[in-house]
Amino acid sequence: MKPLIVGLTGQTGAGKTTVSRCFRAAGLAVIDCDLVAREVVEVGSPCLEEIRAAFGPEMLDENGALRRREMARLVFGDPEKKRQYEAIIFPHITVALEREIARLENRAVAVLDAPTLFESGADSMCRCIVSVVAPEELRVKRIVERDGIDRELALLRIRAQHEEAFFRGRSRFVIDNGGDLEALEQAARQTAEELLALARLF
After folding, report:
1. What is the pTM of this model?
2. CA angle at residue 178 from 19 to 141, to 5 degrees?
3. Per-residue DSSP letters for 157-180?
4. Does residue 130 come out as left (phi exceeding 0), alpha (psi in the -120 to 50 range) or beta?
5. 143-165 pLDDT, tens per residue?
6. Whole-angstrom Cα distance, residue 108 to residue 10?
7. Nearest Cα to Cα of residue 149 among 43, 17, 4, 13
8. In whole angstroms, what is the distance from residue 89 CA to residue 80 CA?
9. CA angle 132, 148, 83 (to 5 degrees)
10. pLDDT (tens digit per residue) in 22-51
11. Nearest residue to 119 (alpha-carbon basis) of 158, 77, 89, 151
12. What's the CA gap between 130 and 187, in Å, rounded?
């Protein structure tokens, strides 16, 4: 039996990680696409070599690893470079995701936890989408605290993404995290129950 493939995405800093944790606790299989993205750019990987060729050796450190913070500043500040970077990395991620999904054939629901679900084209693999959204100022505060970056870089990340209306218009489920942690966890548990019910229909 193939699982119901669900995309979990949303605005950066909106609380997707907490929702993902709640989904796991509810028994859903969750594929961390950020982790997959890190694996495809490991030292010596074909993807990392393509990045080096496109952006120069200065994007790699002395050990041949990707300088993630420098790359983030470059691509989030330049839409064309962002498109170029995504055109390199996303095909590698898609292949890796297909491999992960194939391992979950005995699970009812497989969630692709992916901040760039739409940009990567991975939404085409999903039967339905769950998006997490929250007010911008709250997201800036969370990103600064979570990632130890300044407000300027946090805003660059936010404004490199789609607006809230984009996510709402493409999602079957929307979790609004403008409240406290308890409310978010309750909404996530309810959504997980609805996804498991939906999986039984297929």
Report:
1. 0.85
2. 90
3. HHHTSPPHHHHHHT-SEEEE-SS-
4. beta
5. 999 989 999 889 988 988 899 99
6. 23
7. 13
8. 15
9. 60
10. 999 999 999 999 999 999 999 999 999 999
11. 89
12. 12
